[in-house]
Amino acid sequence: xxxxxxxxxxxxxxxxxxxxxxxxxxxxxxxxxxxxxxxxxxxxxxxxxxxxxxxxxxxxxxxxxxxxxxxxxxxxxxxxxxxxxxxxxxxxxxxxxxxxxxxxxxxxxxxxxxxxxxxxxxxxxxxxxxxxxxxxxxxxxxxxxxxxxxxxxxxxxxxxxxxxxxxxxxxxxxxxxxxxxxxxxxxxxxxxxxxxxxxxxxxxxxxxxxxx
Amino acid sequence: xxxxxxxxxxxxxxxxxxxxxxxxxxxxxxxxxxxxxxxxxxxxxxxxxxxxxxxxxxxxxxxxxxxxxxxxxxxxxxxxxxxxxxxxxxxxxxxxxxxxxxxxxxxxxxxxxxxxxxxxxxxxxxxxxxxxxxxxxxxxxxxxxxxxxxxxxxxxxxxxxxxxxxxxxxxxxxxxxxxxxxxxxxxxxxxxxxxxxxxxxxxxxxxxxxxx
DNA sequence: GAGTGTGAAGTTATTCACAGCT
DNA sequence: AGCTGTGAATAACTTCACACTC
Lengths: 212, 212
Known about the structure:
The structure is a homodimer of 212-residue chains. The first copy, chain A, has 212 residues and is an alpha/beta fold. The first copy, chain A, contains nine helices and nine strands. In chain A, α8 links the parallel β7 and β8 (178-181). Chains A and B meet through α1, α5 and α9 of A and α1, α5 and α9 of B.
C-alpha cells in the first residue's frame, strides 16, 4: 500500500520560509556585488544563521548547489523568488490611514518586490476623501465591495486595536486570502485565510526584559 | 557537590517572554472590563495560545494563580509589568528620520508604556534642523555624544539598509544596551547589546508563500 | 580540497495529563 | 467542582558529522 508522497510544501516550516526570505535579500545584495557563486558558509554569515541551516533549508526545495563550488547566485535567487511567490505581483489594501499607513504606503521596498497598494480605507471623515499620491482614502463602509471589485488579495491593518477585528472581518468578507496585522491585538480569521502579525510593543517589551 | 541553582531568568525562553508581553496586553484590556480574575483558559483564548502554555509561562516566575479560581487580573498585570521591566521608563533615540520614524515617533502606545524618544538623527541636510513636536533632528555625526550625554539606552534604526550597520555601530559606541532594527539587513552587535529585528519584507514574503 | 546534501543526534519548545489545592 | 502547577511525553527545530560529488 503506497503512502502518498507529501508535497515539499507540507514539510516546510514557518521558520524555514522566513529564513528563505532572508537569503533572498542577501542574494540580491550579492547580485549587486557581482558574485557568481556563494557557499552555505558565506550565505549563512550574512543571513545570521548556521551553514547547516542554509543547506537544510535549501535542500527542502531542490538540489541547487554544486559540491565543491557552492550555489549559483543568480539562479538560486530566481528559485527562491519563485518559491516565495515573488515572481508575480500582489494586490493589497490598507485599512487605517494613520502615520504607520503612510510609512507603509511610501515604503519603496514593497512595490519593488511586487506588493502594490490599490486601496486605502479609514473611518474618520477628516481622512476620507484625502488623496495619497493619487489614491483616494475611502470610507471603511466601502471596504467589502472595493476589495472584491479590485481583486485585492492581502489586507493590511493599521487601525487602533479596538477596530482591528471588525476591519479584519470586512477584509475576509471582501475575499482577501492574507492579512498583515499591525494592531496590538490577537485577530481571529477563518480557515483558509493566512495571518501575520507585527507587534511593535512586543518587540520593545522583549528588549526591555533583556535589558533589565 | 551541589550544582548552583540557575536563576529563573536563565530558564526563560524568548518565546515565553513574547507571550508574557501578549498576556500583559490582554490583562490591560481585562482591567478595563472590570474583571477581577481570569482563568488560564480565558487568557489563552484572548492571547491566541493554549491554556497549558499560559500556566507554564506564568509558573516560571511564581505562583500567581489560585486553584479553582484563576489568576487575579490586577496583581498579575503588575507582576508581568515588573518582570518585563515596564515599571520604569526607557530612554530611546531614533536614527533615520523618514516616514517610518515619523510613525514610531507618533505612536501613542510607546510613551504610555514608558518608552520615550529623546533624540532624532539623520544624515540628510534637508532633514537636519527640522523640528518634530519640539525635538530637533540632529546630524548623525552628533549621535555618539548626544546618546551618551542624554543616557539613551535603546536605539531605533529606521535608516535604509545600506546605512544600518554604521548607525548601529554608532549607537553601540554611544553606549546603548538595546537596538530595535527596522532595516532589512542583518546587524552585528557586540556581546552585551541586545538586538531585535522587525522586517516587514519577511512578513509579506512569508504571507506570499502561504498564499501561493 | 572544497563544499553540498542528509540521516542521526541533540536541543528546545509545546502539549498532555493528572496530582493537589481552594 | 474548578482550575492551577508541573513532571512526563511529544513534537518541532537545529546542529552534527560524514558520505558523496565536483
